[in-house]
User: Fold this.
Amino acid sequence: MKLMQIALILCCAVATYNFAVVAAASSFEDNDFAEFEDFDSDDDFVEVPVTVGGGAPAASKEVPVKEKEPVVKAAQIQDDEEDGIVEDEDEFFKDDEEFEGFDAGEIKEETGKKPAEPKLTVAKIPMHFRTHWDSYWMEMLMLAGLMVYFTNFFAGKAKNAKLAQLWLTTHKGLLDDNFVLVGDDGKVENENPGLMKESESLYTLWCSGRTCCEGMLVELKMIKRQDLVSLIAGLMRPQQDQVHIKVDLTRGVMDPFVFCVGTKKTITKAFKEYADLSKYCTLVSKPETRYNVPAGFSVLSEIPEATSAILENRIITALSRYQQYIDYIHISDQYSGPVQVEDANNLKQPETKPVLMAGFNLPKNGDMEAVKPLLILIFYLMERLKGYRLSKEGQQKAEKNRSRVEEEFLKSTHAARAEAAAQRREDKRKAEKERIMAEDDPEKQRRWEAKEQKRQAKKKAPKMKRLAVKSL
Assistant:
């Protein structure tokens, strides 16, 4: 009987245990949050003692128990689901911005094989620095150009200085015989007599202390040998070293006339550039037959008799013998420089002065003795102008020409002069009004205002012309 009770109790206990295990398993499967349940035991398995019959414990049966998981409340999980969405792994690999060239839609899963990885192409970048000299050909070319330029600069500078000094040495004795002071530097004490260097291709020499002239300025204009660009341009347009001489004559020494002789190219250019030549002179046609000048020369003349007196036998001989060196000879008593731009506000004619100017080419071989007679020609012309006098008809023609030029100037500036005169009258009236108003005499001020009103009324009144009618 007791055995039956024990067996019955044992069966009930086993049934109860199995029922509990099944219920626990079903509760884990139905509960979504079962993995977060907290267990008291950390063991993976729990041994359940089983007694058989007389109470002897049977072999223990191991029941698997899940690991303890942290308990998370449902509200917290719901908040996490609302805050962020966890993307699926497949969706992540389909992102085109993250994986370029990787088409996740066409990946086929194969058993035992991984999907092919995208192929990356690495661009070949050339080396920035190289050790070959041909990589620096541009820099070497620039350095070579700079070296050639500076070498030419110093060589051309030295050659121009040498030619200028050679000209001075050759003509120094002749200049000392005709002038008291040669090579004035503008100081009280002439510290550095000789050539004055204006630039690398321009040298000047001032001489003074001679009768019939105030002074003589010599300009040595050399080719710009120090400038490589100018030398290259000279290959297409040849240039020559030149000496320009300008003698400021004393007023009253020469009679009034304007004259110029020189090469055709120079005469054409001078006729357009210089005011005295364009206003007073005309181009002589066929000067070879009229004045016996060499072929290739042109003549600008104001008074024919003065031109014939200047182009005498000695001058014609010098022109023929030194034709290759003579560029121009310009004589004028109305020299005012280049043609000025017309200005309506310019109410005064430019100042004029008598001059003797000449331009000579220097020899290419540097033989300055060959052009020394040309300086003697300048001194001969100075003496010739000092002693020559125009005839009565020539004097009248010269005066007529100068009156004509003055009238043309007055006509061109008539409007400007009228405006200036009106402005002067207005300024005079303003000054008179200020003077009257400053005085403490009301009667005098009243008379002045009445006079001014009368003048204004007369000015505004229409102008009428009076006609004289003869009686029958």
